[in-house]
Amino acid sequence: MPDHPENRKRALRAELRGRRRIRTATEREAAETALTQQLVQLTSDLRATFIAAYLSTPDEPGTRDFLRWADGHGIRILLPVSREDGLLDWAPYDGEDEEQDILGMPTPTSELLGPIAINGVDLLLVPAACVARDGMRLGWGRGYFDKTLGSMEGGPPVYAVIYDDELVDAVPTEPHDMPVDGVVTPGGIVSFSRG
């Protein structure tokens, strides 16, 4: 079944991973500086005082400067911690030590608050491999954020953080895939209308 959505997703993820790995340190630094400005703008526009975000890995668009800015401006921040049951726990950002969760993703060492801790956040920032112009998000294949998004009826605005060239015309989808409300890239903020 070469045309099955999961096979197309796997191929697209591999291509995007490859593109991310060949970005130079200079490109990454410039992207993080610009991305930080866009994330500050979005947070300010939404008047968010409580957000859920994530610690970026070296290949991802950088979120750490933004997290330091948000923390310095008194914004409460929760970060995800992967659980073995496929759900996400959440822990407060404290700007201190980090460890790796069961997937090897960077997480805070602060107290775990459980999956429902993000109820009440004003903004949810999520990672993505890419996002289509209709708002469909292609994640990295583990389903953690799709489960979280699927359980949040009437939740906060959800924005994926990606590089400019990762906003694409279409992505392969399956029934469990969840859309986002917009994307934040180094080049700007794009919001999707929900009909």
TrEMBL record:
<keyword id="KW-0067">ATP-binding</keyword>
<keyword id="KW-0460">Magnesium</keyword>
<dbReference type="InterPro" id="IPR002698">
    <property type="entry name" value="FTHF_cligase"/>
</dbReference>
<protein>
    <recommendedName>
        <fullName>5-formyltetrahydrofolate cyclo-ligase</fullName>
        <ecNumber>6.3.3.2</ecNumber>
    </recommendedName>
</protein>
<comment type="similarity">
    <text>Belongs to the 5-formyltetrahydrofolate cyclo-ligase family.</text>
</comment>
<dbReference type="InterPro" id="IPR024185">
    <property type="entry name" value="FTHF_cligase-like_sf"/>
</dbReference>
<dbReference type="Pfam" id="PF01812">
    <property type="entry name" value="5-FTHF_cyc-lig"/>
</dbReference>
<keyword id="KW-0479">Metal-binding</keyword>
<dbReference type="InterPro" id="IPR037171">
    <property type="entry name" value="NagB/RpiA_transferase-like"/>
</dbReference>
<keyword id="KW-0547">Nucleotide-binding</keyword>
